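Course assignment 3, question 2. Fill in each field.
Student: A.L.
Task: Predict the tertiary structure for the chain below.
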Amino acid sequence: MSALNWTNLHPNKFLLLGIPGLETIQIWISIPFCVVYILAFLGNCTLLVIIKNDSSLHEPMYLFLSMLSVADLMITTTTLPKILSLFWFKDREIYLEACLTQIFLIHSLTTMESGFFLAMAFDRYVAICNPLRHSAILTNSVIRGLGLAIVTRGVILLSPHPFMLRWLPYCKTNIIPHTYCEFMALIRLSCAQTKIHRAYSLSVAFLTAGLDFILIICSYILILRTVFRLPSKEARLKTLGTCGSHVWVIMTFYTPAFFSFLTHRFGRHIAPHVHILVANIYLLIPPMVNPIIYGVKTKRIRERFLKIFTNKIP
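Answer field:
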């Protein structure tokens, strides 16, 4: 194969198109994107500082929440700076290695986020259904082990993605119609047979986010069964209140995630700009919303937050 053909089939850089059909207003779209990034960064950093400095919050739920905040910070930093550079400065070029790294980080970190949600659901299940053994079951060593297992799962299962994409021939174009590098976006540019690649990606998605979601639903079915057996309405409402913030962040994460995943693979009739906007919402909104929801709905975090900014004890 000649050097020219090799270069054509295996480009060393790609061009990000942005949001097809909305190129003329991308500068305006960048404003809410920038605001979301700032809020996500400040919110998650504040949450981490509060949990780290308050020993009374060194409990399983808050420790898993701090792991989620770290993942949120990493995923927004992986995507937003390049997106804003694209919108503001028309910086469309991204080298192949950077593109593959972004794909690995995005997919592995979202997989880890899903795992942390499952761990938090397990914590709620034990706290409500078996409260007397909560501290015995979720010890510090168990929490560390679960966190390590979630991170390891994300790294191992998603590591093949960049290697599968690295040697594919891209004879159609080197233009990615997206704001960031995404596995299926690159698959569509390849002129090789990609059934195995698609099957592996689909299997990983089901074994991680799909299975996590099913287990979360099962845990909440058991939680609801226990709650409705409580003798008083006040006790039922109080117990359900401890799960409220977790349910909201789960809905915020999984709703756009599943929509983005399904439209990437089956939504051929959905307008490209709708799909890409949803894909960006999936990555950007949960990291911003998570600390806000926990800050508003969790009294202990809200009190510490107010203490930081008012120098008073509420």
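Instructor remarks: DSSP finds twelve helices and three strands in the chain. Strands lie at 13-16, 93-95, 175-176.
Grade: pending
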